[in-house]
Amino acid sequence: MNNIPKINQADPIPEAARSDIENLLSTGDLFRYTNYNSAVFTLEQNFANKIGAPYALAVSSCSAALFLALKTLSLPANAKVLIPAFTFGAVPSAVVHANCIPVLCECGTDYRIDLDDFLIKLQLVDAVLISHMRGHTSDMDKILSQCEKLGVPVIEDAAHSLGTTWRGKNIGTFGRLGCFSFQSYKLLNSGEGGMLITDDPDCFAKAVVMSGAYEHNWEKHHGERHFFEKWQNQLPLYNMRLNNLSALIVDSQIPYLDERIENGRRNHDIAAKILSHSEWIHVPEKFEHEARAPDSIQFNLVGLTPLEVSQFCDLINRMGVALQVFGNSKDNARAFWNWGFLPERYSLPKTREMLMNACDVRLPARLNVDDCKNIAEMILEALSQIKNNIAAE
Prior knowledge:
Blueprint: H1 18-27, H2 39-51, E1 55-59, H3 62-72, E2 79-84, H4 90-97, E3 100-105, H5 115-122, E4 127-131, H6 140-150, E5 154-157, E6 165-166, E7 169-170, E8 177-181, E9 194-198, H7 201-212, H8 225-231, H9 244-251, H10 257-275, E10 281-282, E11 290-291, E12 296-301, H11 306-318, E13 323-325, H12 349-355, E14 358-362, H13 369-392
Parallel strand pairs: 2-3, 2-4, 4-5, 5-8
Antiparallel strand pairs: 1-9, 6-7, 6-11, 8-9, 10-12, 12-14, 13-14
């Protein structure tokens, strides 16, 4: 059996950050509003510069960013928000939390939005929340043009897409607001945390106030004063702030981001090339205008029975490769039929069929070329064993 690293283990925090962390801990100065030039403020400016956005707000999670983004739109109660059916359960949860109704759209075998279903449902909604799930970008040209035509605002869930570009522009900067994650499995890791970005000064001021900038703490943000004054005491405070320790940890990793993107792309492409040799695997191609920044690989099992899919999952995990099939993993938070909190149940046969055969394997940027080759070859070996065993019975 090949020796491979634990792919579900988070990346370590850079050694260069340790002294700054120790200094911060020695002061106990963890609250972002203790002073004007906090670690959180510095992170916001560095992230905004890196991503190419005028305004950035660090918050406690990407879910918090999604919730605040929806609230800035001042949607009516029970407004309908269109989301892809292939996403993480936190996305419809944020919609419900914002007192809105999720409307689920079909996704295809390439993990992207089914545009036919999207265009039909777009006529019936008040906003769109695009999840670039696992970094797979839907056709942003068509989505944005149709939304603009109907006057429907777009929010981007870019939790899995930091560093991905569409026509050379960063994903997360196309919608009115973009939301990112700093959860442990993301390219920038603080365990928990998120970032909201926008080029709309009014939306930004709303988000800052609602995030927990009580009294005049909005003065410790980069923004336009008259917008903050407009919303002072007019909006509820949800207290979704990021703390200085988390911010310092994230900020220390930004200088490594480009390298991580490059390594993640290399790892994905190495594994994809090997896996594509199998008749039982289909790895969807990226779109022409998309440059992905993956830290994982997804592929579809082809020609396997449900029993064979389950046997393959059991075998490859016993071999040491942590792999899940989204729809075959009990209570998986990415399988829409498990979202019992939705006000409406959906059948969505295209998405369901895809999820029952879609595999997911982490390929962290810290892996080397041999690691990725070994993982891909072990997957092929496991598939071969399952098919050969079934044929021999």
